[in-house]
Design a protein that fits this description.
7 strands; two-stranded antiparallel ribbon; alpha+beta; 137 residues; single chain
């Protein structure tokens, strides 16, 4: 079954634009997946209270037959390929990929919550999601 997943991209280390571009390329190459929308890039202040550089954020809409768990696994692989190291929560990162929404599905398990619990607190995600939903109608 094909669903539309919305994936948030963020970067605040190194060549942020290049990290987002590489993530978009890698997402387009996922099996049984097609990019159907790409939001504008937006610069935002970091979350979590740590002193760090600002983020570039963007969201993509994907038509996919991957399950939420399969997609999460692929996203984490893409992050690792871009040099992401998970040390401290809210720390700077080369690339952060989050499943924001996945069709009408809800998942509430350790390590995966869909819709993402941070959606209500991130106005930039709300703007990007609205932009993509308008675009993919």
């Amino acid at each position: 079954m094909i669903d539309v997943a919305y994936v948030a991209l963020g970067s605040n280390m190194g060549d942020r634009h290049a990290h987002l571009a590489e993530a978009r390329r890698a997402l387009a190459e996922l099996p049984n997946t097609r990019v159907v929308g790409i939001s504008n890039v937006e610069e935002t202040e970091p979350l979590g209270g740590l002193t760090q550089p600002g983020y570039l954020n963007q969201m993509v809409a994907l038509e996919t037959t991957l399950t939420p768990h399969e997609l999460l696994s692929k996203l984490q692989s893409i992050e690792e390929q871009q040099g992401r190291v998970r040390r401290e929560r809210w720390a700077s990162r080369t690339l952060d990929l989050d499943i924001v929404c996945y069709g009408h599905q809800s998942v509430d398990e350790p390590g995966l919550q869909v819709p993402h619990p941070g959606l209500a607190d991130r106005p930039f995600w709300q703007r990007e999601l609205a932009e993509l939903r308008q675009e993919t109608r």
